[in-house]
């Protein structure tokens, strides 16, 4: 493993990467910012699974099993790294519709998030059409 990969694999860097992903996503979907939610995040690597608890608002990220999670996300580590730093809401949607990302949990909470994201994407398309 090269020095760069070793640095990225450290828990504190993963924690800051998760914080970056959540902050970037919430910046694009501001209507979700006040949402109080505990989510479990499962990052799947080669033969390795890392579990994180993400609490909103915040985000507060801890490396732990999120027993109190309302929503659980499971995503390949490499795909998460890409989405966290460069992804937009359309990329996240693509990952959940066609990629290896999966979301499970309380149906009403998942539906709320999907509806808010869809409305935000619609607003974005309307803005682009006007320009």
Structural descriptors:
131 residues; alpha+beta; Nonspecific Lipid-transfer Protein, Chain A; five-stranded mixed β-sheet; 5 helices; 51% helix; globular; disordered N terminus
Walk me through the structure.
The structure is a single chain. This protein is of the alpha+beta class and 131 residues long. The protein has one domain: Nonspecific Lipid-transfer Protein, Chain A (2-Layer Sandwich). Helices cover 51% and strands 22% of the residues. The protein contains five helices and five strands; from the N terminus they run ααββββααβα. It has a five-stranded mixed sheet. The longest helix has 24 residues, at 107-130. The radius of gyration is 15 Å and the shape is globular.
In brief:
The chain has 5 helices and 5 strands, in the order ααββββααβα. It has 131 residues and is α+β, with helices and mostly antiparallel strands.
Q: How would you summarize the topology of this molecule?
A:
Layout: H1 3-8, H2 11-28, E1 37-44, E2 49-56, E3 60-62, E4 71-76, H3 77-86, H4 89-97, E5 102-105, H5 107-130
Parallel strand pairs: 1-4
Antiparallel strand pairs: 1-2, 2-3, 4-5
Helix pairs in contact: 2-3
């Amino acid at each position: 493993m090269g020095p760069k990969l070793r640095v990225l694999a450290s828990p504190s860097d993963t924690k800051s990467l998760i914080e970056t992903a959540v902050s970037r996503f919430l910046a694009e979907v501001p209507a979700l910012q006040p949402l109080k939610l505990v989510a479990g995040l499962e990052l799947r690597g080669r033969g390795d699974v890392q579990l994180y608890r993400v609490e909103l608002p915040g985000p507060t990220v801890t490396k732990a099993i999120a027993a109190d999670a309302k929503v659980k996300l499971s995503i390949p580590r490499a795909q998460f790294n890409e989405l966290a730093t460069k992804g937009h809401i359309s990329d996240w949607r693509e990952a959940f519709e066609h990629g290896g990302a999966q979301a499970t949990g309380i149906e009403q909470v998942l539906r709320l998030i999907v509806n808010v994201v869809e409305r935000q994407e619609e607003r974005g398309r309307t803005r682009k059409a006007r320009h």
